């Protein structure tokens, strides 16, 4: 982490003044825009955002009448969340990027490019490790970045001022292969599972359904049985009665508070030809096989509409997924259906 001491400059020194929440430089300040992309030109000079002004004072590029570095920090920190925003701004600048404020928190240009002579690459939202991620807001902001052909990045500042960058992708899962033909089968409800007949190598086992109970039977999970029942492949028997899909769904919901979103995600993944199995040992709802059953490719956690999760929880999930060579996706029940959001750590 950097200590706040001013950094010497051997180029030029520009004087400026505080104007509310920004800093104004005279016409001599335009060189900062022309050479390094700082600020926004105006008819009588250059207007700097607070993060830009503080960074230029820190780098001894400008002086501001009546303020030294510490007093300027104190002044701008009256704006809530300013300091963590500045930490991100400084980090990006010192990595060689030109940075402007907006339209989220920062717009970051490709290395070697700046306003007027280049295009921006990243849209950056600044967060702390304790912030809640509202998935509906995240989807909206990421979609806006993607529509502008930019990468959407979360810059997360932890309590020690260290930074982690995450790229957010809205992943449209593509249809992989058709579901194999499955003959109708009767099953017996046994607690939280449904037993169906199936010798080793049966079509159900080959399709990735169930856990072997013994040589002649497979044990289906609640989501597997629910999926097959809704598609009229499985008939569920319970105490000499046949459970309708509605009756079985009510049992499912009574047993699992996340049943609705889990079933929605499971059903869609299955319809696309992927093989979802429980992801419990990874702390998530599903591990998903895309190309055969040798290695699962994805971890997916189902999220109900309106859900918010702490960034610290998401960070643990992403780190674990990377450690086992999987992608981390959250399947969010959204207005347009299920939206899959991928979180991936990146190095800028």
Description:
Keywords: Endonuclease, Hydrolase, Nuclease. InterPro entries: tRNA_endonuc-like_dom_sf (IPR011856), tRNA_intron_Endo_cat-like_sf (IPR036167), tRNA_intron_Endonuc_cat-like (IPR006677), tRNA_intron_Endonuc_N (IPR006678), tRNA_intron_Endonuc_N_sf (IPR036740), tRNA_splic (IPR006676). Residues 82-165, 261-340 form the tRNA intron endonuclease catalytic domain. GO terms for molecular function: nucleic acid binding; tRNA-intron lyase activity. Residues 30-70, 186-248 form the tRNA intron endonuclease N-terminal domain. It is a single chain. The protein is 29% helix and 34% strand. With 348 residues, the chain is of the alpha+beta class. Among the domains are: 1-79, tRNA intron endonuclease, N-terminal domain (MutS, DNA mismatch repair protein, domain I, 3-Layer(aba) Sandwich), CATH 3.40.1170; 176-265, 3-Layer(aba) Sandwich (MutS, DNA mismatch repair protein, domain I). The strands form four sheets. The protein has a ten-stranded mixed sheet with strand order 6-7-8-10-11-23-22-20-19-18, sandwiched between helices. The longest helix is centred in the first third of the chain and has 13 residues, at 82-94.
